[in-house]
Amino acid sequence: xxxxxxxxxxxxxxxxxxxxxxxxxxxxxxxxxxxxxxxxxxxxxxxxxxxxxxxxxxxxxxxxxxxxxxxxxxxxxxxxxxxxxxxxxxxxxxxxxxxxxxxxxxxxxxxxxxxxxxxxxxxxxxxxxxxxxxxxxxxxxxx
Amino acid sequence: xxxxxxxxxxxxxxxxxxxxxxxxxxxxxxxxxxxxxxxxxxxxxxxxxxxxxxxxxxxxxxxxxxxxxxxxxxxxxxxxxxxxxxxxxxxxxxxxxxxxxxxxxxxxxxxxxxxxxxxxxxxxxxxxxxxxxxxxxxxxxxx
Amino acid sequence: xxxxxxxxxxxxxxxxxxxxxxxxxxxxxxxxxxxxxxxxxxxxxxxxxxxxxxxxxxxxxxxxxxxxxxxxxxxxxxxxxxxxxxxxxxxxxxxxxxxxxxxxxxxxxxxxxxxxxxxxxxxxxxxxxxxxxxxxxxxxxxx
Amino acid sequence: xxxxxxxxxxxxxxxxxxxxxxxxxxxxxxxxxxxxxxxxxxxxxxxxxxxxxxxxxxxxxxxxxxxxxxxxxxxxxxxxxxxxxxxxxxxxxxxxxxxxxxxxxxxxxxxxxxxxxxxxxxxxxxxxxxxxxxxxxxxxxxx
Amino acid sequence: xxxxxxxxxxxxxxxxxxxxxxxxxxxxxxxxxxxxxxxxxxxxxxxxxxxxxxxxxxxxxxxxxxxxxxxxxxxxxxxxxxxxxxxxxxxxxxxxxxxxxxxxxxxxxxxxxxxxxxxxxxxxxxxxxxxxxxxxxxxxxxx
Amino acid sequence: xxxxxxxxxxxxxxxxxxxxxxxxxxxxxxxxxxxxxxxxxxxxxxxxxxxxxxxxxxxxxxxxxxxxxxxxxxxxxxxxxxxxxxxxxxxxxxxxxxxxxxxxxxxxxxxxxxxxxxxxxxxxxxxxxxxxxxxxxxxxxxx
Lengths: 143, 143, 143, 143, 143, 143
Known about the structure:
The structure is a homohexamer of 143-residue chains.
Chain A: E1 4-16, H1 25-32, E2 41-53, H2 65-80, E3 83-84, H3 85-88, H4 99-116, E4 120-129, E5 132-136
Parallel strand pairs in A: 1-3
Antiparallel strand pairs in A: 1-2, 2-4, 4-5
C-alpha cells in the first residue's frame, strides 16, 4: 500500500497579542514579554496542510490540490488573512492566540471537510517567524 | 542505539503534463486544470532523500554522502534532469506524472542501491513548487 | 524628491527548450547542452517587477499593488503560466526562449500599461533556477 | 578606489493598517482592500541596510557590523518590533504606514548616525511579504 | 490530548574538519574528500530544536520560547558559535565532528535541562549546507 | 540597445578568522569580537557573479552560463572551497579575510577571464551569513 503524504502551503498575514486581561501588566510582561504589547503586533504566517492517502490510479492524485486549496482558502485564509486573530476570528474566540492554539483551531476547521473529499488530514505546520513554528498531528505523537 | 536520519538534497528541472488521452479535453480540464496543457509545462523540482542508520564509529557517518550523492545522480538526476517526465523517463513510463507517482518511482529506483551501501532508505520528499510537495516513506505511515 | 522603488513578485511554471532547427544536433548540444532536449524541460520562474515613483500623499503608495498585480497577471502570467514558452506564448514567437529574451519580452508587454497607471517600469528580474537569473532595466546600464 | 557596499539584515514583527479616517469605509476598501481592516493586521518585516565606503586597510571593514547592528537595533528595531506602526512608533506618527513611507522613515532615523561612524547610508530595502518589497536610495534614482 | 510539537531555530558558524590522525593522507582523502583539509573549513549551521507537550491552558504555550531559547543559547550556541568544533567544544571532544555526531552531542547537552522546564525534547535537526542535514530523535525511529 | 545583466550563483564553504597578530588579544577582541577566535570559525558562502552584455541574436545568450560557470569554478571555487581563507588561498595572501576584501579578491581573479569570453563583469555579491553580505562593482558607485 503506497501511502503518500501531500502538503499544500498557504500564507496569511494577521495581527495578534498574547495578553491576559486578568493578569497585571508586569505578569503579562514577565510571561509574554514583547508579545503582550497592548496595541498588537503581527506576522506573516505560513501554513502547511498535509493529507495522506493512496494515489488514485486514474489521476495519480491523493487529493486534488484544487479541492484542498479551496478548503483551506474558504475555511481558514478568508477568516484570518489581514485580520486580528484575537478580535476577528470566530474559531479562535476566547482562546489565547498562541501559535500552538492557532494550529489546533485550524485543524478543527478543516478535518471533516477534507475527509468529505476522501483525504485524511494528518498534520498542520504553522510557521510564525523564521525562528519558530509548531506542528500538530491531531493529537498523535509520531515521535 | 543512536539512530540518525541523514538527508541529501538534489535538484532537477523537467517538463510534464497531467493529461489522459482516453479522456475528453473538457474532462482533462475539469480534473487537471492548467496542468493538462497539451504543449507541456515544467518545474524546478527539489528532491530530498533520507537514509537512517547508526553513525560508524570510525567516520561518524551513517552513509558517506559522496556515495549517496552518486546513487541519486546516476539513477535519478541523469534520467530526469532537463527531460520530459512523460516521454523521456523509463521509470515513469505508462504512469501519470503526478508528484505522488514520481516520488514512488524515485524510491523504487534507489531503494536496493542504498541498501547495498549499508544504508536504509526511509523517506523521499519531492517539492514541485513552493506551494506543494509530497513525502513517501516506502508505504509506511508514521503519522 | 523621495523616489521609492517598489517590487511585486509573481511566479509561473513553464516548459521550454533552447534549440535551433537550423543547427545540427551536435551543434545544439555543444552550445545549449541539456537545455536543447527535443522533448522540452521546464522551470518554476520567479518574476520581480520594479516600478519607481513618489509616494502619493493620500495613500503612501507609489502605485497600488492591486493594479500592478493585475497588470502582471493579465498580461504575463495568464499568457505563460503552465504553458510552453516556445509554442504557446505570442510575445515570444520567433525568439529563442532564453531567460534574457524572456525578460525583454515581459518588459515590452507591460511598460506602457504601467505608465498608464502612473508608474514607471524600471526593472524586470527573472529567476530561472536558484543558480541563475537575469535583470533588465529597459536597456539602461546602472552599473 | 575600491568602494564596497555592505548590507546588514534585521527583522521585526509589527501590526499596522492602511486606512484614512477622513474617508468612508467603502473608499478605504476600494483603495486599500483588506489592508484597511479596522482591527489591524501585521507582518514579519525584513530590513536590509546598505552602507558604502572603502575597506579600512587595518581591518578590511567598510564599517564595523557590530556598530551598524547597534545603530539599527537601537534606533529602529527597538522602536518598532512587536509594536503597532500606526500607534506606537514616533517616527511614523501622522503618516500612512505604507511600506514606502516606512522605508523613508527608517532612513531618516539612521542616516546621520551612520555618517557619525564613518559610513554612508545608501539604501534601505524593506520586505513586507514574499511578494512585495520597497527600496529607497535617499531620493537618488540609480535606475 | 492535543499534543503540540514546537520548534525553535538558532544559528551558529563554526570551523571543523573530518580527519583521522591515525589514517594516512590518502585514506583521509578517500573517505572524507575535501572535508579532510588540514587547515579546516567551516559552515553556517542551522539548528532546529523540537519540544512536545500540551499547551498550558493559561498561556497557550507548550514551553515558553524565551526559556527554550535561553537553554539553547547558553548550552549550545555560546559553546560552539564562531569556534572550532574539533578544538574548542568540550562536548565534542574526542569525537569525529560529523553532522551526525554533532546532532547527538547537542541533544545530550540539552535533554535534561528542557525536561526541567516541563518540556520533552523530541528532535534535533541540524542543517550543515543547503544540500545536507541530519535529524536525531534521541534514538527513536519514527519511520 | 537591450543590455541584459545575467547572474550565476555558486557556493563554497570555508574557514577564516579576523585577527591581527600585531595587535593584542584584547584589541583583537574589541574590534573583531568572536570573529577573532584563534582556532578559526567558518561559513557557507554564496557567491553571485553578474555579467552584462547584449543577447547574441543566434543563441539569446549574453554569455554561455557553462563558460561562466567554468570560469568561476576553476578560478574561485576550486581555490577556496573547503579551505582556510587565511592560510590556503593564494589570492587572499597577506590580506585581512573580511567579506569586503574577499569580494575584491574574487573580482580580480575573474575580470579578464570573463572579458576573454566576450562578457563584462559588473558585480560580485558575496553572502557570508543570512544577516550580512557585500557587493562590489569594480569600484563603481551606482548609488
